[in-house]
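ok trying again, last paste got cut off:
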Amino acid sequence: MIDLQKHIWEGWTVGDFVERLAPELDRIMSGCSWRRPFTTKQELSTWCRENQPYYKKHIPGVVAYFARRYRQEMIYYHRFYVESLYPENRRRILRWLFRTFSVYLCETMPAGYKGRFYTQDVRFPKAAFCDLTFSLRGDRSLCLWVISYDLHTLYLERNIYVYGKWHNL
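nice, full thing came through this time. structure:
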């Protein structure tokens, strides 16, 4: 629970800062502003610090309040497609996806798998996929597509692993 009555500076409380920032932040997060909506807590924290009146230091209560309020918009969805001539490599990638992320759809295809998973506060988990595919770099038939998007900011990114390298399209 966030204490909106907590004193911050010269009579200003967390609730006062929230009240002053809320109208502009509502416009930003609804897409009615020139600024694109925030997708990470760090972006939100920086904006709050720069736009709060008088006191230009980080206030954890203010950031926590808005992060909780807009939590649903900070989820990224990903579609994946795995194809390889080697069934063990396909199963290994699929097993890793289920262990690492929240996979909510998976279908078997003749040469691989396709499905969907989601992450919070991470657009495309590039480092994790690079670590996984490093050990599979000898499989020249491996093709892995990951399309990442979120429904709030219309962010879209397409990454393809083919012929032993990652490509961002």
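cool. The first strand starts at residue 7 and ends at 9. The chain has five helices and eight strands.
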